[in-house]
Amino acid sequence: MTADLAATAVARVSRRLIPFLFLLYILNFLDRVNVGFAALEMNKDLGFGPAVYGFGAGVFFLGYCLFEVPSNLVLYRVGARRWIARIMVSWGLAASAMILVHTAWSFYVLRFTLGVAEAGFFPGIIFYLTYWYPARERARAYAWFLAAIPISGVIGGPVSGALLGLDGVLGMQGWQWLFLLEGIPSVIVGLLVLVWLPDRPRDARWLPAAERDWLEATLLAERVHHSAGHGVSLRKALGNPVVWSLGIIYFLLIVGLYGFALWLPQLIKATGEFTNLEVGVITTIPYAVAAVGMVLVGRRSDRTGERYLHLAFPAVVGAAGFIMVARIGSTGPLLAALTLTAFGVLAWLGPFWALPTAFLKEQAAAGGIALINSVGAVGGFVGPYLLGAVKQRTGSFTWGLLTLAGFLVAAVVIVLWLRRAGSVMRTEPAEPA
To answer: What global pTM score does this model have?
Structure first.
């Protein structure tokens, strides 16, 4: 009976929350990486070389990194509903303001500002879901939520390519229309957060009393267990070597993810065979495959209770993909290699975020998750900048792509070391529904 109640409660929560959070993250990721599509025309219009673009694309993450931990601690105090709404409205306005870019410095400042505005959103959602899912159910929940990353590519690619075609309408460039029309929805949906998201199960009127009570009791029991045993306080979380190890792993993996995401349109365009609209359509292929892969890897990780190998395997695939992209010249095999890379740089996300939330609770979770994400955010600067700088110096993507592969291999080495050391608790497999 308890198993049926648990399955029903988790399923109801998933139906109510995950589609909406999925939409929020699509908007978030799209506003973060649409500069990759804008660059197809913006760089030429404003005279930006690969190094300028790479630095501007990556400097977003420095602003993001600086304000991550403070933002997530505020979320813990004021509640997810109000703070996530504030973040969305702020980043929507900042994303739309990208139409004002006219020099390299204005590009850097506006991207940095967008990073500050977005700070706290992603770790805030990861933390928010700990109030709704028992630990054994989280990899799947995170995988469904994080599948918004590749789906934003599936949706955003064709839309961005089409918006570039508005060049000259009302005296604005196509890339300006792209920033404006992709920023406004975040403001509108941010206001809907105030209506749709309850802070905790006890605030959810749409949950039957029995399911609400079961969720509250189960999650409270987990918090008590960790507080009495191996739970970690906020102060200890911020100085915990395991938290920092996970931060370093996340940094290495994020170098690959954003090096890929922010340069993908230009990697395809560099073949010289496609229009901007065709580039947008073609980018849907790698992202669609990655979305399916993310969900399957997250589901299997929860079923087995194993996190490390489900994290390491995609990273190895991603490294192989980068090497193949660097070595392949013809278009068909290149698209296959990009698809393999997309799976590799994304499918590890669900199992990864199930690790820190297994031993960090409450305020420690808010601070620890934000710290890990902050360290990783530096990788979001390094990846795009590194690829741009190497392209500027050598005239080719080859050595930059091989370097990104090296970052993923380094992450795998640390993951396997943590697995052997047993530094993070193993989550029990989910009960069969």
So the answer is: 0.79
Residue 360 β-bridge partners = 232
Q: Which residues pair with 232 in a beta bridge?
A: 360
Q: Report the alpha-carbon distance of residue 209 to residue 214 in Å, rounded.
A: 8
| Residue 96 near residue 184, CB atoms below 8 Å | yes
Q: State CA 223 to chain mean position distance.
A: 26
- What are the sequence ranges of the domains in the chain? 2-198+232-421
Highest mean pLDDT among 86-100, 300-314, 377-391: 86-100
Both structure tokens of 151: 């789906």
Q: Is CATH 1.20.1250.20 the classification given to domain 2-198+232-421?
A: yes
Query: What is the full DSSP assignment across 312-350?
Result: HHHHHHHHHHHHHHHH--SHHHHHHHHHHHHHHHHTTHH
Per-residue pLDDT reduced to its tens digit, 376-426? 888 989 999 999 999 999 989 999 999 999 999 999 999 999 888 765 544
- If you count them, how many residues does the chain have? 433
- pLDDT digits 0-9 by tens, 365-380: 667 777 888 888 889 8
Angle of helix 138-146 relative to helix 284-304, nearest 10 degrees, comes to 170
Among 147-161, 230-244, 245-259, where is mean pLDDT lowest?
A: 230-244
Amino acid present at 430: A
Residue 172 DSSP code: -
Average pLDDT, the chain: 87
DSSP secondary structure, 32-98, as one string: HHTHHHHHHHHHHHHT--HHHHHHHHHHHHHHHHHHHHHHHHHHHHH-HHHHHHHHHHHHHHHHHGG
- Vertex 248: Cα angle to 231 and 84 (nearest 5): 65
Q: Is the alpha carbon torsion for 177, 179, 185, 188 positive or negative?
A: negative
